[in-house]
Amino acid sequence: MELEIELQAEHLCKSYQKSEALKDVNFKLKQGVYGLLGENGAGKSTLMRILSTVDFPSSGSVLYQGKNITQMDEDYRTLIGYMPQDYSVYPGFTATDFLNYMGTLKGIPADRLKAKIPEALEFVNLSDVANKKVRTFSGGMKRRVGIAQAILNDPKILILDEPTAGLDPKERIPKRAMRIRK
Ligand SMILES: Nc1ncnc2c1ncn2[C@@H]1O[C@H](COP(=O)(O)OP(=O)(O)O)[C@@H](O)[C@H]1O
Ligand SMILES: [Mg+2]
Which residue's CA lies nearest to atom 25 of ligand 1? Predict the structure, then answer.
């Protein structure tokens, strides 16, 4: 049996020149879906950047299965999918081009990508615009391309910062919930 996932934050602190974004944050997450709630500037994005290793804590650590994620480096990055809050997509690319580009950067083999891209586009309900240029997309559609790139590598840990920003109410309902409602 596969070991249950455990992601733990220990005494996480992050200070910027003018502010203390995280102050002694501690938690232990097991398999599941978690949401971060807090007002603007509460430190949500800072925490997600640290969990995605695109930023580092001033002190404290994040452990995945007991191992420090900074030390795990590439071994950890292959396990995660991340969409930053200020995510943007290259307007001149089609959705498929963009996912190809992102998947290649992530080191996903070409044959695997070829199968995975239509699957990811289907998941975010963009199959019918797969070969349209991203510049023609609405804000919500661009956001969904961002979600698609985050799931390309079948991540064990998926970190989405404000995934529903710019999505209309229908888009916000998870697809599985939509299926159940039908
Ligand atoms: N790169 C940065 N440089 C300086 N201050 C920052 C930076 N990123 C975030 N902050 C500050 O850290 C605090 C937390 O910001 P953030 O993590 O973006 O909060 P949230 O996502 O909850 O709105 C805020 O006071 C913000 O101004
Ligand atoms: Mg934020």
Answer: 41
